[in-house]
């Protein structure tokens, strides 16, 4: 029985749009369903957050034809400085000490979103259904039957594979009755663009404080993205501060390593909650990105992990097509999990342990974690392993991440 599309992706955020671009060269008929008009500033995936892009993400964005378009809005990270407020431990990473030109890049989410959408809409075999909302879905002889609310009426479409790329509060996940493991860190990340008195010299700073990490990510010579993590119960107070009051609060925690903070743009807040789907797939259905795993932002790995998942799923789909296997075959999703689960588990363990270690008030842990940072800073072999993992190129990875073609 014929179907309308081979793949239907719910969510045109960065993960959903990236997957559409990654799959498009296969010739599959792809539909992307998005509830918010793409030019609407309220599209939650495309705001003023600064995204740290690892080397793995750069390779994937190059492969799907997006990197060149977003390059004017990208700033390299040449150095990374990590410290703990009021403690002796610190870690310093420098691209000059590696065989890489940079340790990563920073891009404003809105700029990356525009580049992804431009590329996505350039493919004739991608149909954008927007604004439209998912109502329900069920398996049928034609494949996955998906009901949408579109243009004021219900619309029924069929697909071989349904992808839930609709964020941490995924409706696809809920309708599929997939349970989650969750942990509320009781923290809120406040994000804003800031101008600094001194140039950042392409350096990313992260300082761990008693209430969460404070990070400055370079997006221009004297401009950085601030990620200021506070206790959830204090978030409203920080958000309601005047600019002067907020600058004073940030400088108290971060210091004046970059001189005075001269201006802070619009502040946005994001609650930090760990979410892991107990199952990532069912017959003809797969969860990607934050729908599958939402992690703590303390190591800036969330989007990079999601992008590697995109590349892994695309690789498994292309391999199936070469063998004459239909996109609705569950073996594709089984192979995807075998490829991606080790990396996912490693990153989730690392971010959760980092969070629990730095916000644990046990006095015995304080010298231990500071000593660990100093050891990491002074042991080249250990530092190189850490850098490889931070770049997303360590261990079993999709072929594109390893610099190969699919």
User: How would you name the CATH homologous superfamily of the largest domain?
Assistant: FAD/NAD(P)-binding domain
From the coordinates shown, what is the CATH architecture of the largest domain?
Answer: 3-Layer(bba) Sandwich
The gross shape turns out to be: globular
User: How many β-strand runs?
Assistant: 20
Q: What profile does the largest beta sheet have? A: 9 strands, mixed
Overall radius of gyration: 21 Å
CATH first level of the largest domain: which class? Answer: Alpha Beta
| First-to-last CA distance | 29 Å
Point out poorly predicted stretches: none
Number of domains: 2
- Mean pLDDT value: 89
Which bin fits the share of residues in helices?
25-40%
Look up the CATH topology of the largest domain.
FAD/NAD(P)-binding domain
Please, how many helices? 11
- What would you call the structural class? alpha+beta
The percent range for strand residues is 25-35%
What is the secondary structure topology, with strand pairs?
Blueprint: E1 5-10, H1 14-23, E2 30-33, E3 50-53, H2 55-63, H3 67-70, E4 74-77, E5 79-84, E6 90-94, E7 104-108, H4 109-120, E8 126-129, E9 132-140, E10 143-150, E11 153-164, H5 171-175, E12 180-196, E13 203-209, E14 212-220, E15 223-231, H6 235-239, H7 243-254, E16 261-264, E17 268-277, E18 281-282, E19 285-287, E20 293-294, H8 302-322, H9 330-358, H10 365-378, H11 380-390
Question: Your description of this structure?
Answer:
The model has no long low-confidence stretch (mean pLDDT 89). β9 (132-140) and β10 (143-150) form a beta hairpin. The chain has helices spanning 14-23, 55-63, 67-70, 109-120, 171-175, 235-239, 243-254, 302-322, 330-358, 365-378, 380-390, and strands at 5-10, 30-33, 50-53, 74-77, 79-84, 90-94, 104-108, 126-129, 132-140, 143-150, 153-164, 180-196, 203-209, 212-220, 223-231, 261-264, 268-277, 281-282, 285-287, 293-294. The chain is built from 11 helices and 20 strands. The protein folds into 2 domains: 5-74 and 107-182 and 274-390, FAD/NAD(P)-binding domain (3-Layer(bba) Sandwich); 185-272, D-Amino Acid Oxidase, subunit A, domain 2 (D-Amino Acid Oxidase, Chain A, domain 2). It is α+β, with helices and mostly antiparallel strands and 406 residues long. The strands form 3 sheets. Strands 5, 6, 12, 13, 14, 15, 16, 17 and 20 form a 9-stranded mixed β-sheet that branches. Strands 1, 2, 8, 9, 10, 11, 18 and 19 form an 8-stranded mixed β-sheet that branches.
